[in-house]
Automatic annotation (TrEMBL), chains A, B:
Lineage: Bacteria, Bacillati, Actinomycetota, Actinomycetes, Pseudonocardiales
Species of provenance: Pseudonocardia xishanensis
Family matches, as NCBIfam families: NAPRTase_put (TIGR01513), PRK09243.1-5 (NF006698), PRK12484.1 (NF009131)
InterPro entries xref list: Aldolase_TIM (IPR013785), N/Namide_PRibTrfase (IPR041525), NAPRTase_N (IPR040727), Nic_PRibTrfase-Fam (IPR007229), Nic_PRibTrfase_pncB (IPR006405), Nicotinate_pribotase-like_C (IPR036068)
Entry-linked CDD domains: NAPRTase_A
GO molecular function, one term: glycosyltransferase activity
Protein name per its UniProtKB record: Nicotinate phosphoribosyltransferase
Length: 428, 428
């Protein structure tokens, strides 16, 4: 185990009742493929960003039913099932899009192959991780695009579940955020952490100048002073009085941020603090960031909007049985239809490097791969073992950076519209 | 510790840099009160539901900096600060609204008193928990109201972070949901778990009748058969063929649910299955549930909408320093103003039991409490120790049930509007 404790009960009860019934009727060992994909992108979004695959693989190592887990299931499941869970160790294969890859409707983001029982029990956990992390990364990527070369600090941990906060910081970093406020994300994933002081620091002191001077004394001249507790203009004056014109940065967290940034820049320049940076925060999202493009801002702090997926808090991915003993299967009633059969995917590009279409095809019918095209899924797990040398978080970050360059320009617009490229489904 | 591991790094870096600076300049020991509250309710909501207080108290016990936490902070913080963290144990007081209580803009949901350093470091963790859990409970309560006497199963774990899923199941149960699909919520908090089978169960088998028969064989006649994999009408026929008219329930997860429920009820009755219940699921939220009020539905399964707060995924609560050494303090610039000073609150009621207003007053100026009024905060922690005999999750559930009865009838409407009762702030 990775040391984070068992992940086995982060599971919907019906996964286990199904397996119990399958052990009873002899179908548990049928060879199955489950496919994890999004039927559609969140309303008006142009692309999605795959995030969480690394956490999926970690969580798989910890998917074990120990005594604590088993005793909580006594009375709910029969003896045969409890025995099976005690011995559970995934022995199948997993393929998937690497983190930082774009996805579109129908992209086979993760493909799990094994016995029915082996693969069924992983549904809830895998969906939880990918639905959450991809929702955050997809929103974060839009903010990074809107911010251009200006760095963004993720500071939304206080607005979401305390463990979701850690995963959100990771996903935002994958998507190109520069730093996070979250210390556990720094420890667990090596995301660079940042932070200096809140309004409480100013209010704690008898006056603002005293607070600024003490902060500079403790954290150095390169610190960021929060200047909007009382009066911003006066705050900036005192900040430079306390730190001198070599002050690292000021932060403004309220008010009309565009106007404030403009006035602050003029004032700082007039005080000789020409290299003092301006950090803006306070209810920023991708639209607010885009609207500040022409203002003299050096970096952004983003909280609520990124950890809640900026209007799309879940990616809406599903995990569907698509193949049983080599036979394609699919739900066929009124809505929520699926395409049966195990699939693979490639993305076609123009010679210029611009993406043209997502081709999702039967795995048994490989497509011609042109010189500019890219096969998307990579092998992740074989026979239950996570493969060595899988892409790192830093590599995912670089992958996304490159992927966004390849998106047709309309696809990078923040306004609502169709997916940036169409998904096509050639038949076998 | 409660055994869940340290919660100390689920914290924004600036909490620790502030305390380091306060240790350096001698302000760390100033006696402070921080107040956790919501400036406003999510857009158009009539009330909020406090949830997470129980988890806050658990997490406080685990807020300890051990070797793993401290070594990750070396190089970031100075020796004095690391030493202080190693010895950290909250020694102050906490008061707050009990779980299941309603809250309104400005309600002092949690009040933390102690030295600046003691109380400052808890900000991020306390906000994460209360912002998440209250967002879920507030949405869930609207769904429970819309469902009337029909039970709801929470089944959204797959749509949110895997640990947020556990807290969401707890919060939904607090708000009146009957059961959850989440096994860890059952183990950790005793929430009743439920679940039978997914579409994969049907697709795994060579035909639908075989799947139904095997499920009834394994799980009993009282199970719930999922009838919408192929053709609902035929599915119901086969379900009764497999289980007989004593079948517990059928579930429909797609299509026009109102029409389907109606047709299914007629068909079941015609087959003699007059006691077979109808469970509906599939993208339900409070509005969809309300629209099904006249249809023959027995229970609902709700996923995405409840775990994402049905449009309001965070409660937007803040944690503000309001008092230092007995002196009220507050931010005073353009927006995001706060009211300084430690506060308490009571709710006034008509003799009929209908709530009239939320009175948030200086703690030093107690208000007259009429025979029908209720003082809202209760003591939770004294001298760092969690008090015994605090309200249980079940008691919180009952508290909310009673609180909702007291809301003026307009306040229970699902449509957007003002808070159900006004908050008034009498001066000292």
């Amino acid at each position: 185990m990775s040391g984070n404790g068992s992940t086995a009960l982060l599971t919907d009860m019906y996964e286990l009742t199904m397996v119990a019934a399958a052990l009873a009727d002899g179908t548990a060992d049928r060879r199955c493929t489950f496919e994890l994909f999004a039927r559609r992108l969140p309303d008006g979004r142009r692309y999605g960003v795959v995030a969480g695959t690394g956490r999926v693989l970690e969580s798989l190592q910890d998917f074990r039913f120990g005594d604590a887990e088993l005793s909580s299931l006594e009375g709910v499941l029969d003896e045969r099932m409890l025995k099976w869970l005690a011995d559970y160790r995934f022995s199948g294969d997993v393929d998937g899009y690497p983190e930082g890859e774009l996805y579109f409707p129908g992209s086979p983001i993760l493909t799990v192959t094994g016995t029915f029982a082996d693969a069924c029990v992983l549904e809830t956990l895998f969906l939880s991780i990918l639905n959450h992390d991809s929702a955050i990364a997809s929103a974060a990527a839009r903010m990074v695009t809107a911010a251009g070369s200006r760095p963004i600090i993720e500071m939304g941990g206080r607005r979401t579940h305390e463990q979701a906060a850690v995963a959100a910081a990771r996903a935002a970093y994958l998507a190109g955020f520069a730093t996070t406020s979250n210390l556990e994300a720094a420890r667990r994933y090596g995301v660079p952490a940042a932070g200096t002081a809140a309004h409480a620091w100013i209010l704690l002191h008898d006056d603002e100048l005293e607070a600024f001077s003490a902060q500079v004394e403790a954290l150095g001249t390169d610190t960021t002073l929060l200047v909007d507790t009382y009066d911003i203009r006066h705050g900036i004056e005192l900040a430079i009085e306390a730190a001198g014109p070599e002050l690292g940065a000021i932060r403004i967290d309220s008010g009309d941020l565009g106007v404030m940034a403009h006035q602050a820049r003029e004032q700082l320049d007039s005080l000789g603090a020409v290299n003092t940076r301006i950090v803006l925060s306070g209810d920023l999202d991708e639209y607010a960031i885009a609207s500040l493009r022409a203002e003299p801002v050096d970096s952004y702090g983003v909280g609520t909007s990124v950890v809640t997926g900026s209007g799309a808090p879940t990616a809406g991915m599903v995990y569907k049985l698509v193949e049983v003993d080599g036979r394609p299967v699919a739900k066929r009633s009124s809505s929520k239809e699926s395409r049966g059969g195990r699939k693979s995917a490639l993305r076609r590009y123009k010679p210029t490097g611009t993406a043209v279409e997502e081709v999702v095809h039967p795995a048994a019918s490989p497509q011609q791969v042109g010189p500019h095209d890219r096969v998307l899924p990579i092998p992740l797990v074989r026979g239950g073992d996570t493969l060595p040398d899988l892409p790192t978080l830093e590599e995912g970050r670089e992958r996304l950076r490159q992927a966004l360059v390849s998106v047709p320009w309309e696809g990078l617009k923040l306004s609502k519209g169709d997916p940036a490229i169409p998904t096509v489904f050639p038949e076998a």
